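Worked example

This section walks through a single chain of length 494. The input is the sequence exactly as stored; nothing has been trimmed or padded.
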Amino acid sequence: MYDVVVIGSGIAGLNFAIDASTHGRVAIVTKKELMESNSNYAQGGIAAVLDQHDSFEKHIEDTLAAGCHLNDTEAVRIMVEEAPEQIYRLIDLGVGFSRKETALSLTQEGGHSARRIAHAHDATGKEIERALIAQVRNNPAIDTFESHIAVDLVVDDNRCVGAMVLDIDAGRMEFFSAKAVALASGGAAQVYERNCNPKIATGDGVAMAHRAGVTISDMEFMQFHPTALAIPDKPIFLISETVRGEGGILKREDGTPFMHEYHTQKDLAPRDIVSRAIYAEMQHGPVFLDIRHKGTPYIKQRFPYIYEQLWWHGIKMGQHQIPVAPAAHYTCGGVHTTVDGETSLAGLFAFGEVAHTGVHGANRLASNSLLECMVFGSRAAKKVAQYIQTAPATTMSIGRTQNILHISDPKHDAIKAAIQSLMWKYVGIIRQPEMLAETRVTLSNIQRDIEDIYTRGITADIVELRNLAQVAILIAEAAHGRKESIGAHYIETV
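Given that input, the structure is written out below as tokens.
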């Protein structure tokens, strides 16, 4: 038995585990390797007021404006005001942020009124993960379980007392007993056909919490990143918003800029506005991101990771325009929590992308995501430390409840593709009320088929597929329930 079981190994989970380990024994359960997470692919950076010309009030107002003022203002103020200390904490933990001489190098992204993004070139998430994993690996109070996928939460006497976990390599279901469970399982953008998340982002935490009766909020607000690489039959690759922050311009095929026609902030408008603008332009032809005017030496120095990835696709950023299109990116809703990570179920805590503190409102401001992970993960660790002091150990003993299969069924991929196609067409950037209603019915029928498969034998694939279907339904239901267009939720009436 552990004091705390953490589900997920992104920045939110790792940071929390380091803090929580000073109060008890911690287990990190992750379905791939520790490094594989949405955090690892975060290119842009982490927002914080670190310049004398900036202010907390400006950061707060930018966050509220991006979120269409549906944000929880208390959560926003806490996140913004605690941001600088989290940057310094990361530096103390060994994160090598980019610098100009001795000062941190700060960049700007869409929706921000100042340069306040601390970054490690264009691979910030990877650098933060590296530093945190080094701390976790050398911490004797933390055990890590890679290739283990959480299947369901275990509830006893209205308390979360652990999780059922599938050891993927051994093909064995195990009960991870704990005084508290922390969900840090990330987002759910794999529910969409075109997305820029790793394949593990299947909404597991939200689905498990929903099955346990935990409150889920604002799932209609799925953010689409405006600029993901758009080459037919090639992998989708995110082109960081910092490329536009450093001067990149969105253009039509004939080289004409167009964002001034959609918003006063032009290419640095909030993501929902830029995504819809590109979507509208693509009805008439392809869209490109152009940063050639900055010159190859600067581009290679500032964006080494993006430059290299595009080079493999035959695109040289200093010579060629980059074909782009929106892709599903970030889940603004999730498991509803307080600002201390508490959910509606005692013993269950959540933070990071899986959680809904209300900090993002209807649309996330760029580079507030890694910040959210740090601030609310640290706050949750303090609350968990208090909780486990008085929480009794469970006496539950659970045996194997499902048959374990070692071979996945090829039709799982076809079912997943059908869900992703439905969501992209009818619950995507532009939504229509009548199609939302039909999609909910179709998804419910698919979910029944998946549950039937699940009862016959369990694999990691079917666990993810089951979760994906559940999250798709939650998004479609929430979208159908919100009648007005706002932020990332845009209703088109015919």
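What to look for: The chain has three domains: 1-221+332-402, 228-328, 411-481.
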